[in-house]
Amino acid sequence: MHPVVAYQLGExxxxxxxxxxxxxxxxxxxxxxxxxxxGPGPGAFNAAVELERTADADVDGVSLDVGLHYGxxxxxxxxxxxxxxxVEGSGDVRYxxxxxxxxxxxxxxxxxxxxxxxxxxSFDLPQELRTGLFVAPSPxxxxxxxxxxxxxxxxxETVVSYSRDPFVGPFTGFxxxxxxxxxRRARHWEDTLSTRLGTEFxxxxxxxxxxxxxxxxSPVPSSTVEPGFARGxxxxxxxxxxxxxxxxxxxLGYSFFQYDDRGASGQExxxxxxxxxxxxxDQVFGFSVSWGG
Length: 293
Prior knowledge:
Elements: E1 4-8, E2 13-37, E3 46-71, E4 75-82, E5 85-98, H1 106-113, E6 117-125, E7 128-135, E8 141-150, E9 157-162, E10 181-186, E11 192-202, E12 207-216, E13 234-245, E14 248-259, E15 262-265, E16 275-278, E17 281-291
Protein backbone atom coordinates (compact mmCIF):
# COMPACT_ATOMS: atom_id res chain seq x y z
CA MET A 1 0.00 0.00 0.00
CA HIS A 2 1.35 3.40 -0.99
CA PRO A 3 -0.72 6.47 -0.04
CA VAL A 4 0.80 9.69 -1.42
CA VAL A 5 0.07 13.40 -0.85
CA ALA A 6 1.27 16.18 -3.18
CA TYR A 7 1.18 19.97 -2.93
CA GLN A 8 1.61 22.49 -5.73
CA LEU A 9 4.14 25.17 -4.80
CA GLY A 10 3.53 27.39 -7.78
CA GLU A 11 2.50 27.34 -11.41
CA UNK A 12 4.98 24.58 -12.35
CA UNK A 13 6.60 23.20 -9.19
CA UNK A 14 5.11 20.67 -6.76
CA UNK A 15 6.32 18.39 -3.97
CA UNK A 16 5.00 15.11 -2.63
CA UNK A 17 5.51 12.51 0.09
CA UNK A 18 4.29 9.01 0.66
CA UNK A 19 4.37 6.03 2.99
CA UNK A 20 4.94 2.52 1.67
CA UNK A 21 3.52 -0.32 3.78
CA UNK A 22 4.67 -3.81 2.80
CA UNK A 23 2.68 -6.87 3.87
CA UNK A 24 3.21 -10.44 2.72
CA UNK A 25 4.82 -13.81 3.32
CA UNK A 26 8.52 -14.67 3.16
CA UNK A 27 9.85 -18.20 2.69
CA UNK A 28 13.38 -19.55 3.03
CA UNK A 29 14.42 -23.07 2.06
CA UNK A 30 17.64 -25.01 2.24
CA UNK A 31 18.83 -28.63 2.13
CA UNK A 32 21.74 -30.12 4.04
CA UNK A 33 23.16 -33.58 4.74
CA UNK A 34 22.97 -34.25 8.48
CA UNK A 35 24.76 -36.96 10.46
CA UNK A 36 22.04 -38.67 12.56
CA UNK A 37 23.25 -40.74 15.58
CA UNK A 38 21.85 -44.29 15.80
CA GLY A 39 22.20 -44.59 19.54
CA PRO A 40 23.35 -42.88 22.76
CA GLY A 41 26.96 -42.20 23.65
CA PRO A 42 29.96 -40.85 21.77
CA GLY A 43 30.73 -44.26 20.22
CA ALA A 44 27.38 -44.63 18.46
CA PHE A 45 27.31 -44.98 14.69
CA ASN A 46 25.83 -42.22 12.51
CA ALA A 47 23.85 -42.24 9.29
CA ALA A 48 23.98 -39.46 6.68
CA VAL A 49 20.52 -38.17 5.75
CA GLU A 50 19.53 -35.23 3.56
CA LEU A 51 17.12 -32.89 5.37
CA GLU A 52 14.97 -30.24 3.69
CA ARG A 53 14.29 -27.14 5.80
CA THR A 54 11.44 -24.76 4.95
CA ALA A 55 10.79 -21.62 7.00
CA ASP A 56 8.04 -19.09 6.35
CA ALA A 57 6.78 -16.02 8.15
CA ASP A 58 4.18 -13.28 7.80
CA VAL A 59 6.23 -10.10 7.44
CA ASP A 60 5.59 -6.38 7.17
CA GLY A 61 7.59 -3.17 7.01
CA VAL A 62 7.44 0.56 6.27
CA SER A 63 9.44 2.97 4.15
CA LEU A 64 9.04 6.66 3.26
CA ASP A 65 9.48 8.52 -0.01
CA VAL A 66 9.57 12.16 -1.11
CA GLY A 67 9.39 13.74 -4.54
CA LEU A 68 9.91 16.96 -6.50
CA HIS A 69 8.15 17.70 -9.81
CA TYR A 70 8.40 20.38 -12.48
CA GLY A 71 5.71 20.51 -15.13
CA UNK A 72 5.61 22.80 -18.18
CA UNK A 73 3.03 22.71 -20.95
CA UNK A 74 4.83 20.16 -23.14
CA UNK A 75 7.50 18.67 -20.89
CA UNK A 76 8.29 17.93 -17.26
CA UNK A 77 10.85 16.49 -14.87
CA UNK A 78 10.63 14.59 -11.60
CA UNK A 79 12.89 13.31 -8.82
CA UNK A 80 11.93 10.90 -6.01
CA UNK A 81 13.79 9.25 -3.16
CA UNK A 82 12.71 6.12 -1.24
CA UNK A 83 14.32 5.65 2.18
CA UNK A 84 14.17 1.84 2.14
CA UNK A 85 13.69 -0.10 5.36
CA UNK A 86 13.16 -3.67 6.49
CA VAL A 87 10.43 -6.30 6.42
CA GLU A 88 10.43 -8.89 9.20
CA GLY A 89 8.17 -11.31 11.02
CA SER A 90 7.87 -14.65 12.78
CA GLY A 91 6.52 -17.98 11.58
CA ASP A 92 7.22 -21.72 11.45
CA VAL A 93 10.08 -23.95 10.32
CA ARG A 94 9.53 -27.51 9.10
CA TYR A 95 11.93 -30.35 8.29
CA UNK A 96 11.50 -33.25 5.86
CA UNK A 97 13.92 -36.15 5.24
CA UNK A 98 14.72 -37.00 1.63
CA UNK A 99 15.81 -40.42 0.29
CA UNK A 100 16.07 -41.94 3.77
CA UNK A 101 18.49 -44.93 3.81
CA UNK A 102 17.34 -48.28 5.20
CA UNK A 103 19.48 -48.31 8.34
CA UNK A 104 18.36 -50.17 11.49
CA UNK A 105 17.85 -47.82 14.45
CA UNK A 106 17.74 -44.67 12.34
CA UNK A 107 14.06 -43.75 12.67
CA UNK A 108 13.91 -42.76 16.41
CA UNK A 109 16.73 -40.25 16.07
CA UNK A 110 15.44 -38.96 12.74
CA UNK A 111 11.90 -38.43 14.07
CA UNK A 112 13.31 -36.36 16.93
CA UNK A 113 15.27 -34.10 14.58
CA UNK A 114 12.30 -33.61 12.24
CA UNK A 115 10.17 -31.86 14.85
CA UNK A 116 8.93 -28.47 13.68
CA UNK A 117 9.72 -25.17 15.40
CA UNK A 118 9.48 -21.40 15.00
CA UNK A 119 11.48 -19.00 12.85
CA UNK A 120 12.12 -15.28 12.48
CA UNK A 121 12.86 -13.88 9.01
CA SER A 122 13.90 -10.41 7.87
CA PHE A 123 15.00 -8.72 4.66
CA ASP A 124 16.42 -5.25 3.97
CA LEU A 125 14.56 -2.97 1.56
CA PRO A 126 17.08 -0.87 -0.41
CA GLN A 127 17.11 2.88 -0.89
CA GLU A 128 16.10 4.06 -4.35
CA LEU A 129 16.63 7.33 -6.22
CA ARG A 130 14.58 7.87 -9.39
CA THR A 131 14.47 10.67 -11.95
CA GLY A 132 12.38 11.02 -15.07
CA LEU A 133 11.83 13.33 -18.03
CA PHE A 134 8.61 13.42 -20.05
CA VAL A 135 7.84 15.14 -23.34
CA ALA A 136 4.40 15.65 -24.89
CA PRO A 137 4.67 16.43 -28.64
CA SER A 138 0.88 16.74 -28.83
CA PRO A 139 -2.07 16.75 -26.40
CA UNK A 140 -2.65 13.06 -27.22
CA UNK A 141 0.90 11.68 -27.11
CA UNK A 142 3.49 11.75 -24.33
CA UNK A 143 6.82 9.96 -23.80
CA UNK A 144 8.82 9.42 -20.63
CA UNK A 145 12.39 8.28 -19.88
CA UNK A 146 13.24 7.22 -16.31
CA UNK A 147 16.46 6.27 -14.56
CA UNK A 148 16.40 4.45 -11.21
CA UNK A 149 19.37 3.82 -8.91
CA UNK A 150 18.76 1.11 -6.29
CA UNK A 151 21.13 0.64 -3.34
CA UNK A 152 21.15 -3.17 -3.24
CA UNK A 153 24.61 -3.12 -1.63
CA UNK A 154 22.79 -2.61 1.70
CA UNK A 155 21.75 -6.28 1.41
CA UNK A 156 25.14 -7.48 2.64
CA GLU A 157 23.74 -10.50 4.45
CA THR A 158 20.43 -12.04 5.48
CA VAL A 159 19.72 -13.37 8.96
CA VAL A 160 17.24 -16.11 9.92
CA SER A 161 16.71 -17.41 13.46
CA TYR A 162 15.31 -20.85 14.34
CA SER A 163 14.03 -22.17 17.66
CA ARG A 164 15.53 -25.55 16.72
CA ASP A 165 17.88 -26.29 13.84
CA PRO A 166 19.22 -29.84 13.19
CA PHE A 167 21.61 -28.38 10.59
CA VAL A 168 23.80 -27.31 13.53
CA GLY A 169 25.41 -29.97 15.74
CA PRO A 170 26.53 -31.62 17.90
CA PHE A 171 23.22 -32.89 19.28
CA THR A 172 22.45 -33.52 22.94
CA GLY A 173 20.98 -36.71 24.46
CA PHE A 174 19.19 -39.52 22.71
CA UNK A 175 16.94 -39.28 20.85
CA UNK A 176 19.07 -36.33 19.62
CA UNK A 177 17.73 -32.84 20.32
CA UNK A 178 18.41 -29.84 18.06
CA UNK A 179 19.00 -26.47 19.70
CA UNK A 180 18.27 -22.90 18.58
CA UNK A 181 20.45 -21.27 15.91
CA UNK A 182 20.85 -18.06 13.94
CA UNK A 183 22.03 -18.42 10.35
CA ARG A 184 23.80 -15.57 8.57
CA ARG A 185 24.20 -15.86 4.82
CA ALA A 186 26.49 -13.52 2.87
CA ARG A 187 24.86 -11.78 -0.10
CA HIS A 188 27.27 -9.01 -1.24
CA TRP A 189 24.67 -7.66 -3.64
CA GLU A 190 25.53 -4.75 -5.93
CA ASP A 191 23.84 -1.41 -6.65
CA THR A 192 21.95 -1.21 -9.95
CA LEU A 193 20.93 1.46 -12.46
CA SER A 194 17.72 0.73 -14.37
CA THR A 195 16.48 2.40 -17.57
CA ARG A 196 12.78 2.67 -18.41
CA LEU A 197 11.02 4.13 -21.45
CA GLY A 198 7.26 4.55 -21.82
CA THR A 199 4.56 6.26 -23.86
CA GLU A 200 0.90 7.14 -23.32
CA PHE A 201 -1.76 7.81 -25.95
CA UNK A 202 -5.17 9.34 -25.22
CA UNK A 203 -7.66 7.43 -27.34
CA UNK A 204 -10.70 9.39 -26.07
CA UNK A 205 -11.59 12.18 -23.69
CA UNK A 206 -11.44 9.90 -20.64
CA UNK A 207 -9.45 6.90 -21.85
CA UNK A 208 -5.72 6.44 -22.40
CA UNK A 209 -3.48 3.48 -23.12
CA UNK A 210 0.22 3.13 -22.30
CA UNK A 211 3.14 0.87 -23.10
CA UNK A 212 6.78 0.68 -22.13
CA UNK A 213 9.99 -1.29 -21.85
CA UNK A 214 12.81 -1.38 -19.32
CA UNK A 215 16.22 -2.85 -18.59
CA UNK A 216 16.55 -4.02 -14.98
CA UNK A 217 20.06 -5.29 -14.07
CA SER A 218 20.34 -8.06 -11.50
CA PRO A 219 21.95 -7.07 -8.18
CA VAL A 220 23.09 -10.66 -7.49
CA PRO A 221 26.75 -11.38 -8.37
CA SER A 222 27.78 -14.77 -9.71
CA SER A 223 29.52 -15.60 -6.43
CA THR A 224 26.23 -15.67 -4.46
CA VAL A 225 23.80 -17.07 -7.03
CA GLU A 226 21.43 -19.57 -5.38
CA PRO A 227 17.94 -20.95 -6.04
CA GLY A 228 16.25 -18.20 -4.02
CA PHE A 229 18.01 -15.37 -5.87
CA ALA A 230 19.00 -16.82 -9.23
CA ARG A 231 17.59 -14.20 -11.58
CA GLY A 232 19.74 -12.53 -14.22
CA UNK A 233 19.26 -9.15 -15.87
CA UNK A 234 15.63 -8.51 -16.81
CA UNK A 235 14.00 -7.16 -19.95
CA UNK A 236 10.57 -5.81 -18.98
CA UNK A 237 7.56 -5.09 -21.17
CA UNK A 238 4.51 -3.34 -19.78
CA UNK A 239 1.13 -2.03 -20.83
CA UNK A 240 -1.75 -0.31 -19.11
CA UNK A 241 -5.03 1.53 -19.41
CA UNK A 242 -6.24 4.70 -17.66
CA UNK A 243 -9.76 6.03 -17.13
CA UNK A 244 -10.23 9.63 -15.96
CA UNK A 245 -13.42 11.13 -14.60
CA UNK A 246 -13.24 14.71 -13.35
CA UNK A 247 -10.21 14.84 -11.03
CA UNK A 248 -9.93 11.08 -10.43
CA UNK A 249 -7.81 8.65 -12.48
CA UNK A 250 -8.00 4.86 -12.37
CA UNK A 251 -4.98 2.93 -13.69
CA LEU A 252 -4.65 -0.78 -14.44
CA GLY A 253 -1.27 -2.15 -15.55
CA TYR A 254 0.50 -5.37 -16.51
CA SER A 255 4.24 -6.11 -16.76
CA PHE A 256 6.15 -9.14 -17.99
CA PHE A 257 9.72 -9.72 -16.73
CA GLN A 258 11.98 -11.96 -18.83
CA TYR A 259 15.21 -12.74 -16.94
CA ASP A 260 18.53 -13.80 -18.45
CA ASP A 261 19.60 -17.34 -17.63
CA ARG A 262 22.14 -17.70 -14.81
CA GLY A 263 24.76 -20.41 -14.54
CA ALA A 264 25.90 -21.77 -11.18
CA SER A 265 27.97 -24.57 -9.66
CA GLY A 266 28.04 -26.26 -6.26
CA GLN A 267 24.24 -26.31 -6.02
CA GLU A 268 23.86 -30.10 -5.68
CA UNK A 269 24.65 -31.62 -2.27
CA UNK A 270 25.52 -35.06 -3.60
CA UNK A 271 27.37 -33.72 -6.67
CA UNK A 272 29.07 -30.40 -5.77
CA UNK A 273 30.92 -30.30 -9.11
CA UNK A 274 27.69 -30.31 -11.12
CA UNK A 275 26.71 -27.13 -12.97
CA UNK A 276 23.19 -25.69 -13.13
CA UNK A 277 21.30 -23.15 -15.21
CA UNK A 278 18.44 -21.09 -13.80
CA UNK A 279 15.75 -19.43 -15.90
CA UNK A 280 12.79 -17.35 -14.70
CA UNK A 281 10.08 -14.90 -15.67
CA ASP A 282 7.51 -12.87 -13.71
CA GLN A 283 4.10 -11.37 -14.36
CA VAL A 284 3.03 -8.34 -12.31
CA PHE A 285 -0.39 -6.67 -12.18
CA GLY A 286 -0.96 -3.23 -10.68
CA PHE A 287 -3.89 -0.98 -9.88
CA SER A 288 -3.89 2.61 -8.63
CA VAL A 289 -6.28 5.48 -7.98
CA SER A 290 -5.17 9.13 -7.96
CA TRP A 291 -7.01 12.34 -7.26
CA GLY A 292 -5.94 15.91 -7.96
CA GLY A 293 -7.66 19.07 -6.88
